[in-house]
Protein 1
Amino acid sequence: MGETYLRKHAPKHAEIICYQCTDDVLNALQNNEIDAFARGEPCNGYIAQQQPEFNIIDIQPSLEKVGFAIAKENDMLLNIVNSELKNMSENGTLSKLRKFWKAYNIHLLS
């Protein structure tokens, strides 16, 4: 979750601290150095599975888009990626990934 978004939407009295990695955030939470944290949707789902003592109180759909860029002239790589994505969709792998990562916004784009 972006720092700019948090500064705009967090309560005025909230102190926003930025960490470099998830492990640092989890350590701070476990050591009572912070009261809460905001992370992206897939990260929150993973943390909830790995750290059941933490509660996710609100899941907002991620507005972040992630994509892969492939050079126009690299038809072979494009075909391999598209073929594997199609296979993953058909054999249920993408559904499993959505569930594992709590990432409801994974979509195949053609």
Note: The chain has a mean pLDDT of 76.
Protein 2
Amino acid sequence: MTTPPSPESFHIEVVKLLLQVATSDDRITHEEIQHLVAAARGMSVPLEELAAMTRCLKNGEPLPAPNLGVLRANPAAAIQAARELMASDSHVQGEEIEMLRQLRELLGVTG
């Protein structure tokens, strides 16, 4: 039997996922950045983790990939966080919808 991830580990992976979602349409809006930072703070993601992720974004470096195994511990929460981010700028792009579809598939969510 596998041990469930710690809440901190899960939240870090959710923020990594949100970075991927935010940049899926090759741009990131001010509203998405605000939402992402607020979500990370709300989930008590350590500042050094958030700083490392945003440094990648700022420097045009590859973003860290989320650990889907960790996200599978609570796929509904991961998908809900992605949906909220997508809605944060009031413009859901086709790329974001496709990413959500793929995410649901990768996390084993049906229906």
Note: The chain has six helices and no strands.
